[in-house]
Amino acid sequence: LINLDEAKQEWLKTSGQHQIKEVADHYGVYQHLFGDAYFIPRVPLTILYDVSDECLPVYYGNIVKPSQASNKPKVSFKSDDNTLWTLILTNPDGHFTNQESEYVHWFIGNIPGNNIEKGETLVEYLQPFPPKGTGYHRHIFILYKQEKKIDFSIYKKEGNCTTLSERTFKTYDFYKQLQDVLTPAGLAFFQSDWDKSLTNFYHKTL
């Protein structure tokens, strides 16, 4: 019998990284976040949403409904203990007032090793909220490897931050400013479109 986990790990070590890059390229991930630049995702991300006692994984463009992503996912990756990382979840498709901007849905910096819980939460998790009739929105996780501890204080948002203007973000500008001290290393993304759960979300949260 074939061990699927072992087969996946072997794929990720060999051709998988370049195939993920090609899929992300197909979905416009690099163009819309990094302009003309791209990177090979060397660090595999495992991202799981808890849905009715089952785990819904994020791959590379699969569908995840807003109701399934109402709570932050569990994120894991392999790394050495003495490394630092940044994880950002951003949506380049959903900004209400500026098509060139994104909304940042989650931002954790200075993650020691792979211990997400001990990272510095700069922006709390906010679920997908694609308006009705706007189709599928890409929600993209980017993992960056840091060269050192970084002062992210200018990105810090207080509380749950449901004021969308404060969540306005541009990956291109963020990376351009910090490219000497961090390097994109991993990615995963899902697509999400409107569902009925958002009626309540818009009334009570936004």
From TrEMBL:
Tell where it localizes: Mitochondrion
Coarsely, its chief localization is mitochondrion
| The keyword Ribonucleoprotein belongs to this UniProt entry's keyword annotation | yes
Its domain of life reads Eukaryota
Tell me which GO cellular component terms the UniProt record holds: mitochondrial inner membrane; mitochondrial large ribosomal subunit
**What keywords tag this UniProt record?**
Coiled coil, Mitochondrion, Ribonucleoprotein, Ribosomal protein, Transit peptide
Q: Which Pfam families match?
A: PBP
What the record says about family reads:
Belongs to the phosphatidylethanolamine-binding protein family. Mitochondrion-specific ribosomal protein mL38 subfamily.
Record-linked PANTHER family? LARGE RIBOSOMAL SUBUNIT PROTEIN ML38, PHOSPHATIDYLETHANOLAMINE-BINDING PROTEIN
What protein name does the entry list? Large ribosomal subunit protein mL38
Q: Which organism is it from?
A: Ignelater luminosus (Cucubano)
Please spell out the taxonomic lineage of the organism that makes this protein: Eukaryota, Metazoa, Ecdysozoa, Arthropoda, Hexapoda
